[in-house]
Amino acid sequence: MAPTLQLILEAIVSGILTGGVYALMAAGLTLVFGVMDIINVAQGAFVVLGAYLSYSLASTFHIDLFLGLFITIPVMFVLGVVLELALIRPLKRDRTQLSILVTYAIAIILEGVLGIVYSTDNVKLFAWYTTASIPVGSFYLPVIYLMAFGLSVVLLAALYVLLYWTKFGRSVRATTQNRAAALLIGIDVERVAALTFGVGVALTAAGGMAFGATTSFNPGSHYDLISRLLVIIILGGMGSLGGALIASVGMLVIEDITAVVWSPVWASTVFFALLVILLLFRPQGLFGKFATRNQ
Amino acid sequence: MTTAAQPQQASTQRPRAISMRVWQTLFWALCLVAAIVFPLVFSNPSVTTVAFFTLVFAAAGTAWNIFSGYTGYIALGHAAFFGIGCYTLALACKWWHVPGGWEPFAFVPLAGLAAAVFALPVGAIALRTRRHTFVVITIAIFFIFQLLAYNLRGLTNGSAGLELPIPPWSGALFNLPFYYMILAVLLLAVATSWFVRHSKYGLELLAIRDDEDRARGLGVRTTFTKLSAFILSAFFVGMAGSIWAYFLLSIYPPFAFDANFDVLIALMAFLGGLGTISGPLLGALIIIPAQQYLTVTYSQNGLYLIFEGVLFLVVILLLPEGIIPALHTRVIKRLWAAKETPVAPAPPTAPVAATVDGSGSPPPDASISADRERRVVGS
Fold this sequence. Notes:
The structure holds two protein chains of two kinds.
Chain A: H1 2-36, H2 43-60, H3 65-88, H4 95-118, E1 133-136, E2 139-142, H5 143-165, H6 167-177, H7 179-184, H8 189-214, H9 222-236, H10 241-261, H11 264-281
Chain B: H1 6-41, H2 45-71, H3 79-95, H4 108-126, H5 131-151, H6 153-156, E1 162-163, H7 175-197, H8 200-210, H9 212-217, H10 222-248, E2 250-251, H11 253-256, H12 259-272, H13 279-297, H14 301-318, H15 323-340, H16 349-355, H17 366-378
Antiparallel strand pairs in B: 1-2
Helix pairs in contact in B: 1-16, 2-7, 2-10, 2-12, 2-13, 3-4, 3-5, 3-10, 4-10, 7-10, 8-10, 12-13, 12-14, 13-14, 15-17
């Protein structure tokens, strides 16, 4: 009994730590959804792109993974803004559904390009701290998990500051609450949308680095990522930032516990099955508001 | 703008409608004949293989369109039903020791039924939500099934996959039985799509697409209507999947449950024209040979993905309504221009082009059908 309990405890800790990284990726996704009313299916592909960018910086220029973020985050921000201007904004009609297809197209183009540039073999980010671990109680905790979690906390705090303490953040929240009213009081909604998309993509640079340092990945990894991220934001309630944070930590903990108690192969299935069960009772997700965006 | 044209159109409708109908029937008959003789004329196995894949996707796309095209609910999880069809046939052959040959084809309807049975709870859950949540739920459900195919080792043999019985046909004729079977399924799917489109049931589906709440207010049993269309489309997708599996002779989870399949059939429908009968057919005719060509010529998978993605972007950004409705709008515009002149004969090309759409109408309900058409174009 005792070892099982310890394994469960370990699963909970690692679930919380990885959950933090997923929260970072999901935050971008749900933020973009809230402001623009679109689902960025390419979020998973951006995460993989971010991981590969860090990989290139580390292996070619020998730049530290965390220092490299000062390069990759701005690059991904610009990429996000450009893609929004070029591909999302021209969708005038039926933007909600068409945007899913457009971002899916972006995702498979990225997958194809990455496959040609980096081949489809699995890679993993490497630094001196990715293999180190420290003893916590009776088990060893990989240092990179702690660092990735710390990075997520810092960036999510920065996102909080951006959203709640700045004028831009106020426009973002206003647009989320009511787009028409935001337009009426003089907010440049289109500009807010482009910048928000940029912020959402920029977060994946950090998320990708953390993901790539903890898991091995290949250009096709984005399917797995996006399916989890979508489940997280639905579960948390679409557009709800807090919901996304709670859902990602909750889901990862449940998944890790399932892996320990039952079997690792069923971990993701439980993840999805929980979503289906939840939606039977709360179609709007845990923290979502129902049909408030139907205008 | 075309609303004003309605009365005039009605007065001149009869002769033109009849000629349109004749053209239309002729066009479809020609297509059918071409499809039947195609593998006999181009008997090279590599050509008939591409033709076979094209028909599989045409059938699946048509089936997808019955639900997603008509109701406007974009489902991105139909690969699950395709996979269920694959596995049903493989398991049926395994359990009942079906020998290779014509016999496995007898289980194709069973595969469709299995997909339909799974579609009932899946649809019931997914259709509680709308818009993006629905899209995302269908994706999630697809991943559940893919994981189950990997994990239920006792049933599906996990990632090692399942083998199907090998038919005794010789090399040159090997593709033909598969080709004609999938052609039959395709015809059935197109016929169903046509009947749905021209029935009150189809109007209800379109009403749901246009305004679900209002449709419900007007007495459409929306839940039943949506769910039945979902099941119907899953049925045909499952049948297409089973024939595809038998053709490949072995199936593995990543091929039977392929996330790309979902996007491919959606792309086909969008390219040809969402919610039109011939749209998915045209889309399959363009995309699948191109895809096969690219995969054969450049074995690198990445190039093909880039092609598919770029094509998708081009279609959605430049031609969001699809080829068929775009043609149709042009024809309507031309008819409208022709009506400005005192004599209003139809331009000679108009009926021909309109027949491509496959929803040219019998004279009595011409106005209703024209109205439906416009919604497709303008929605």
